[in-house]
Amino acid sequence: MKLHRILFKVMLLPAAFIAVNCYAQEPTGNFKDAQSNVAMCIGCHALPNYKSSFPLVYSVPLLGGQNAAYIIKALKGYQAGDRKNPTMQSIAGSLSDQDIADLAAYYSRQTADSANNNTK
Ligand code: HEC
Questions:
Q1: Which residues make Cβ contacts (< 8 Å) with residue 93, sequence separation at least 6?
Q2: Predicted local distance difference test score (pLDDT) of residue 120
Q3: pLDDT at 25
Q4: For the chain, what is the mean pLDDT?
């Protein structure tokens, strides 16, 4: 192989590395952008002691005041199938990384007593 070709390939490596790193970066969550998706969650997650009944009876955890990193990890766990709950797996499957970051920002801003305040 000619030297200039080898040099060209060596020079491409850092560019590829930077591209991969940028791609892997987590998006920054914006709580205001979560509003449209929150509408999908409040039916279950804003009701204290609520139990969903399909396909089994599940206790629905309140999300207000939960740590953002925890919410992100939980939703990605449902996406990946590491966490198994049919409803949450299909809901999480419809969310982009940006949606997840926005929802995490939204819920982590709340406190336990604002859990029912869906407009906050
Ligand atoms: C039909 C009811 C329902 C809807 C709608 C719903 N969830 Fe859930 N969610 C549940 C149930 C039930 C669980 C507990 C499942 C389990 O035991 O793994 C849960 C668990 C979670 C968890 C894990 C909480 C924890 O403490 O581990 C997160 C995070 C979550 N949901 C986020 C959301 C978000 C965000 C939305 C809206 C985009 C949403 N959910 C919509 C029923 C629902």
A1: 78, 79
A2: 42
A3: 74
A4: 79
Residue stretches of the chain with pLDDT short of 50: 115, 117-120
- 74's tokens: 């939980």
In this prediction, residue 33 carries a pLDDT of 92
Which residues does residue 59 pair with via DSSP β-bridges, in sequence order? 51
The number of residues making up the chain comes to 120
For residue 12, the model assigns a pLDDT of: 66
Query: CA-CA distance, 39 to 119, in Å (whole number)?
Result: 10
Burial of 106 (0-12, 13-18, 19+ CB in 10 A): buried
Question: What pLDDT, on the 0 to 100 scale, is given for residue 28?
Answer: 94
Q: Which atom of ligand 1 is nearest to the CA of 99?
A: 38
Name every protein residue with a CB atom under 6 angstroms from any ligand 1 atom: 37, 40-41, 43-45, 52, 58, 60-61, 63, 71, 74-75, 83, 85, 87-88, 91, 103
Q: Output phi, psi for 58, to 5 deg.
A: -115, 140
113/11 Cα distance (integer angstroms): 55
